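Researcher: Quick test of sequence recovery. Tokens follow.
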């Protein structure tokens, strides 16, 4: 950014411009993003949750159909390649997260991973998602949903099971197709479908509630009866408690 450019920015764009670079790998750059808050209230009647949590901004999985790319534009970045290659890890404060959680009514759901994948490769390096779960594990009565395409979620099987003993927690694994070649076209950097199903099996083995979601269902791409039935059968075989699809 040109000298003095950051002075003209406000809000999240200014925070992004002032973020310190952490490291770079395979054309992906990682930045340390100051976090003004972790929880965002969502009042839309179209979704079944009231609060959202996104540990990262941007997503390395590079899904062709991603609806969240526009969120990078709030930081004066593009929703194209920069969404996939400039990943912002939120600076972590357990105490700040606890204070925010204290204001959440226990009757309201918290969705983790609505505009990013909480288990994308950055999570292996920075562990923001796991740190959030460790705080949630100290609470009681929360309703938590986690949505991911990554088999890395199985790393936290024991922790999620611990959370589930005092809270309601569901993990939603997104699997758009069981065809590896098609999945590679749609989600170039996401784990293979069979690895995601193996994560379902591991989570269920730990007693974690898991569902498989086929989303989006794309006309003439993954909407055939054969394709959908293949995902449903694999989900059942892995022990998923439910399977569903939407556009």
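Model:
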């Amino acid at each position: 950014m040109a000298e003095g450019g950051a002075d003209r920015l406000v809000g999240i764009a200014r925070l992004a411009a002032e973020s310190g670079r952490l490291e770079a790998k395979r054309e992906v750059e990682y930045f340390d993003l100051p976090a003004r808050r972790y929880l965002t209230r969502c009042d839309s009647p179209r979704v079944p949750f009231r609060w959202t949590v996104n540990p990262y901004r941007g997503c390395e999985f590079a899904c062709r159909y991603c609806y969240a790319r526009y969120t990078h534009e709030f930081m004066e970045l593009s929703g194209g390649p920069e969404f996939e290659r400039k990943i912002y890890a939120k600076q972590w404060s357990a105490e700040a997260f606890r204070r925010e959680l204290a204001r959440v009514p226990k009757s309201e759901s918290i969705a983790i991973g609505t505009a990013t994948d909480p288990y994308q490769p950055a999570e292996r390096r920075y562990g923001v998602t796991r740190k959030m779960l460790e705080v949630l594990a100290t609470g009681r009565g929360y309703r938590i949903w986690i949505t991911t395409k990554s088999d890395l979620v199985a790393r936290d099987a024991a922790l999620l099971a611990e959370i589930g003993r005092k809270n309601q927690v569901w993990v939603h694994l997104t699997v758009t197709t069981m065809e590896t070649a098609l999945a590679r076209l749609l989600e170039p950097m996401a784990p293979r479908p069979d690895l995601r199903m193996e994560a379902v099996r591991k989570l269920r083995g730990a007693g974690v509630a898991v569902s498989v979601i086929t989303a989006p269902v794309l006309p003439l791409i993954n909407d055939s009866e054969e394709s959908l039935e293949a995902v449903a059968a694999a989900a059942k075989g892995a022990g998923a408690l439910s399977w569903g699809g939407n556009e």
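Residues 11-244 form a domain with the TIM Barrel fold (CATH 3.20.20).
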